[in-house]
Amino acid sequence: SYPAQDGSDGPDVAHKLFAVKTRDWSDDKPSVLVTGGVHGYETSGVQGALMFLTEGHAANFAALGLNILVAPCVSPWGYEHIQRWNPDAVDPNRSFNRGSPDDCGSQEAANLVRLLLSCNVEQWACHVDLHETTDTDETEFRVAKSARDGDVSEPGTIPDGFYLCADAQNVQLEFQRAVIEGVRKVTHIAPPDPDNTIIGSPVIDDGLIAYDYTALGLCGGVTNAPLTTTTEVYPDSPKATDELCNLGQVASVTSALDYLLASRGATGEL
């Protein structure tokens, strides 16, 4: 909960973390996490997670033998107020600490970690975290971050298209490629900048960069899943629509889970 944002002495504003979990959850099945809205203003992450649920994809994959947990809007305050940060000027996606809610740097991260602990999953199989990169990242967020941190805001570029951010400590290149190819059927993949970077990070494969999830406190590192990825849709592209962005997010999840099932089928684990 957060204090009333209108400056009044009214009651705190509380937001519950809602999630959907398969009914026939079993310790014998691979467990999958889908998260959206870690940055509340990244709308297609929330809408894509909801589409994955409402259009039957989650039910279909559950029928194929997966435990599925979907948290469509990890930062509900940010979603309602169209903000990246929470009211404490904390970026929820730099505040996660796996397995330890008390050591998370935001209420949003702590709530998700508590939810995961309640599932009693010893080994997660896959986690897809749904995000966007928007023009306001450049015009508003980076400027605000520099002001908060006492730095000089340097101009940057925003990639035109979809890309992924893998865990630098566990890239899983074939998995990332499978997700990119699935999304490519729906929307375009971001080309690198002339220096072969995307948002300043070296491109390691088509539409793919990598961050150290754990070191940065990213949501993508909140589980011990070997298959993890963070999606980035560009909703401000002249080639994109809201619907295409949402569909791109859904395609990223379904492609990830198709890869998971295929890889486990090949090894006889499922």
Give the class from helix and strand content and strand pairing.
alpha/beta
Distance between the termini: 41 Å
Strand order of the largest sheet: 1-3-2-4-9-5-8
Return residue spans where pLDDT drops below 50 for at least 5 consecutive residues: none
Secondary-structure element order, as H and E?
EEHHEHHEHEHEEEHEH
Number of helices: 8
Average predicted local confidence, pLDDT = 93
Reported for the largest beta sheet, the result is: 7 strands, mixed
Folded structure, characterized:
With 270 residues, the protein is of the alpha/beta class. It contains eight helices and nine strands. The chain has helices at 43-54, 57-63, 76-81, 107-118, 135-149, 173-184, 213-216, 242-267, and strands spanning 20-21, 31-36, 67-71, 126-130, 163-167, 197-198, 201-202, 208-211, 227-232. A hairpin with a 2-residue loop joins strand 6 and strand 7. The longest helix has 26 residues, at 242-267.
